[in-house]
Specification:
The complex is a heterodimer of chains A (about 110) and B (about 110). By secondary structure, chain A is an all-beta fold. Chain A has no helices and eleven strands. Chain A has one domain: Immunoglobulins (Immunoglobulin-like). In chain A, strands 2, 4, 5, 6, 9, 10 and 11 form a seven-stranded mixed sheet that branches. A four-stranded antiparallel sheet of chain A has the order 1-3-8-7, with no helix packed on it. Classes of the chains: A mainly beta (about 110), B mainly beta (about 110).
Chain lengths: ~110, ~110
């Protein structure tokens, strides 16, 4: 299995509080991604990073921010959690663009906002 | 714009019978296509990928998929289902970009 660790694996938080999820990789891959998974929607891209300090928005980025200060760590922050952000969050990594590579996924973080 | 449509949200088969999970894609360029599997409460695992080489792609656990440009399809098949195949399957498209676009998933049930 690719060396991807997500923490925490489960979290319950209150509406309005900030939350940070961490993704740590040991593969030295350039690209890192945050997705959310919701029933009926598949996985949707929140933000991604193509290098240290280089990030870009995905299709559902509102209410989320990210940071990548080291190759191995990619943080996802919910600035003020809302119930609509209750979801399962997956981190993924890849070596490069998807013509010749694939994405490897972490085990997921189940976040509940009450 | 890229998109992918999984035509069935649920598929049920009996153990030992063939599996067909359907996927159509939309892409302006030659796409890369993937099938990922997710077992309950697990992360996603790559089953197979198409990246403009052979149109019939073989993957793990006996799965295969055929890229048909004329039909814009990339259906996943397996000759004989096993109980352990019960999972959710995602068809995914990319065209040499930094992003993967996921379908909404097909839940496969396998009955004994």
């Amino acid at each position: 299995d690719a060396g991807i660790t997500q923490s925490p694996r489960h979290k319950v938080t209150e509406t309005g509080t900030p939350v940070t999820l961490r993704c740590h990789q040991t593969e030295n891959h350039r690209y890192m991604y945050w997705y959310r998974q919701d029933p009926g929607h598949g996985l949707r891209l929140i933000h991604y990073s193509y290098g240290v300090k280089d990030t870009d928005k995905g299709e559902v980025s509102d209410g989320y921010s990210v940071s990548r200060s080291k190759t191995e760590d990619f943080l996802l922050t919910l600035e003020s959690a809302t119930s609509s952000q209750t979801s399962v969050y997956f981190c993924a990594i890849s070596e490069g663009r998807f013509m010749n590579t694939e994405a490897f996924f972490g085990q997921g973080t189940r976040l509940t906002v009450v | 714009a890229q998109s992918v449509t999984q035509l069935d949200s649920h598929v049920s088969v009996s153990e030992g019978t063939p599996v067909l999970l359907r996927c159509n894609y939309s892409s302006s360029y030659s796409p890369s296509l993937f099938w990922y599997v997710q077992h309950p409460n697990k992360g996603l695992q790559l089953l197979l990928k198409y990246t403009s080489a052979a149109t019939l792609v073989k993957g793990i656990n006996g799965f295969e998929a055929e890229f048909k440009k004329s039909e814009t399809s990339f259906h996943l098949t397996k000759p004989s289902a096993h109980m352990s195949d019960a999972a959710e399957y995602f068809c995914v498209v990319s065209h040499n970009t930094d992003k993967l676009i996921f379908g909404t998933g097909t839940r496969l049930q396998v009955f004994p």
